[in-house]
C-alpha cells in the first residue's frame, strides 16, 4: 500500500492510494499516519477497508492544496553517512568499517513538493537522494535476522545538507543536516509488503533537469537490515522513527569545482517504486 498525507501544513489528513490509483481518505480509520498507527494490525485493517471499498475518495480540492510528509510525530531521524563507496570517495573520506550514524532534527521534515529554504548564512547547500526506512515496531538490540519485520515501510528522501555548516564548523554533522525543510520525505510511505527487496531500488536526482545522481540500493555498504541491527544497539528505535540510509555518488560536494544549490534551482528525485519529489529552492526571508 501507498500511504500519504495531504492538506495545509499542520492540518494534514491521512490517505491511502487505491489499487486503481484513486486517492482515498483514511481519516475515518486513523487520526493520522504516525508511530501509533503504523503497526501491523492497523495496516491490516486498512487493507481490509481498501478491499471493501469502504473509504471515500479524497476531495480533489484538498489534494491540490498540498502533499505533506507521509507521516508525522517523528521522534528522530537517524542518518547514515558514507554508505556508498563511490560517495565516500568523492567526499575524500575513508570507506567506513562500521555505519556512520548522525541525527537529523525532526523539525527538518518537509513535504515532497514543498520549497527547500536556504538558511541564513548558507553557502554550500547540497542534495542527497536516499532511501528512507520508517520503523513500525520499536525495539533495542534488534537481531539482524528480524530487522525487516520492524519496518512499517519505505519512502524517498532528500538529505539536504549545508556542507559549510557540516564540515567546516567542527565534526558535528547534525548542524549541517537539520535546518528547517532539509528533510523532504514522500510522496508515499510504501508499506514493507510492497517492497520485498529494499536492496534493489534505483535512485536518481536531477538539478534544473540535469542528472546529478544515479545509483541503486544494491550498492550500499551496509544494507537496511544491518543498519537497523546496528543502530538499535546504540539507541532504541521507536515506532515512527525514520532511518535515512545514505546517498550514491553525484553530490555537489564531489564536483570539481563543487556545485551547490541556489535560489531558483529545482530538485527532482525519484526512488524506484516509492515516487518522485520536485522542490524549488528559495532563500529564507531576509536573505539574498
List keywords for this structure.
15% helix; alpha+beta; 29% strand; nine-stranded mixed sheet; 6 helices; five-stranded mixed sheet; 288 residues
Low-confidence residue ranges: none
The run of helices and strands is EEEHHEHEEEEEEEHHEEEEHEEE
| Portion in beta strands | 25-35%
**Considering DSSP H and I runs of 4 or more, what fraction of the residues is helical?**
10-25%
Radius of gyration: 18 Å
| Main sheet overview | 9 strands, mixed
Structure, explained:
There is one protein chain. The chain is an alpha+beta fold and 288 residues long. The protein is 15% helix and 29% strand. It contains six helices and 18 strands. A nine-stranded mixed β-sheet has the order 3-2-1-13-10-9-16-4-5. A hairpin with a 3-residue loop joins strand 17 and strand 18. The chain is globular and about 55 Å long. 46% of the residues are buried. The model has no long low-confidence stretch (mean pLDDT 94).
Please summarize what this structure is.
The chain is of the alpha+beta class. It has six helices and 18 strands.
Present the secondary structure layout:
Blueprint: E1 2-6, E2 13-17, E3 23-25, H1 40-51, H2 60-65, E4 77-81, H3 85-90, E5 100-104, E6 109-110, E7 116-118, E8 125-126, E9 129-135, E10 151-158, E11 161-162, H4 163-167, H5 174-177, E12 183-184, E13 189-191, E14 202-207, E15 210-216, H6 224-234, E16 242-244, E17 266-271, E18 275-283
Parallel strand pairs: 4-16, 6-12, 7-18
Antiparallel strand pairs: 1-2, 1-13, 2-3, 4-5, 8-11, 9-10, 9-16, 10-13, 14-15, 14-17, 17-18
Amino acid at each position: 500500500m501507498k500511504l500519504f498525507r495531504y492538506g495545509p501544513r499542520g492540518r494534514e489528513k491521512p490517505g491511502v492510494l487505491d489499487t486503481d490509483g484513486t486517492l482515498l481518505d483514511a481519516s475515518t480509520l486513523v487520526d493520522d499516519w504516525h508511530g501509533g498507527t503504523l503497526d501491523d494490525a492497523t495496516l491490516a485493517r486498512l487493507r481490509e477497508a481498501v478491499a471493501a471499498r469502504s473509504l471515500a475518495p479524497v476531495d480533489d480540492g484538498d489534494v491540490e492544496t498540498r502533499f505533506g510528509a507521509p507521516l508525522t510525530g517523528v521522534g528522530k531521524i537517524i542518518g547514515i553517512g558514507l554508505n556508498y563507496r563511490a560517495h565516500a570517495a568523492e567526499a575524500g573520506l575513508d570507506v567506513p568499517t562500521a555505519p556512520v550514524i548522525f541525527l537529523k532534527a525532526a523539525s527538518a521534515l518537509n513535504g515532497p513538493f514543498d520549497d527547500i529554504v536556504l538558511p541564513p548564512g548558507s553557502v554550500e547547500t547540497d542534495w542527497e537522494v536516499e532511501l528512507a526506512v520508517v520503523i513500525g515496531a520499536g525495539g533495542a538490540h534488534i537481531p539482524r535476522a528480524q530487522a525487516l519485520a520492524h519496518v512499517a515501510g519505505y519512502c524517498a528522501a532528500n538529505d539536504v545538507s549545508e556542507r559549510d555548516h557540516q564540515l567546516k564548523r567542527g565534526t558535528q554533522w547534525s548542524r549541517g543536516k537539520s535546518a528547517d525543510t532539509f528533510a523532504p520525505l514522500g510522496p508515499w510511505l510504501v508499506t514493507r509488503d510492497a517492497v520485498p527487496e529494499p536492496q534493489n531500488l534505483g535512485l536518481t536526482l536531477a538539478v534544473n533537469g540535469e542528472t546529478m545522481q544515479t545509483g541503486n540500493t544494491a550498492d550500499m555498504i551496509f544494507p537496511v537490515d544491518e543498519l537497523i541491527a546496528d543502530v538499535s544497539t546504540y539507541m532504541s528505535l521507536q515506532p515512527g522513527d525514520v532511518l535515512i540510509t545514505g546517498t550514491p555518488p553525484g553530490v555537489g560536494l564531489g564536483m570539481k569545482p563543487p556545485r551547490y544549490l541556489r535560489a531558483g534551482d529545482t530538485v527532482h528525485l525519484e526512488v524506484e517504486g516509492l515516487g518522485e519529489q520536485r522542490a524549488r529552492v528559495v532563500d529564507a526571508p531576509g536573505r539574498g
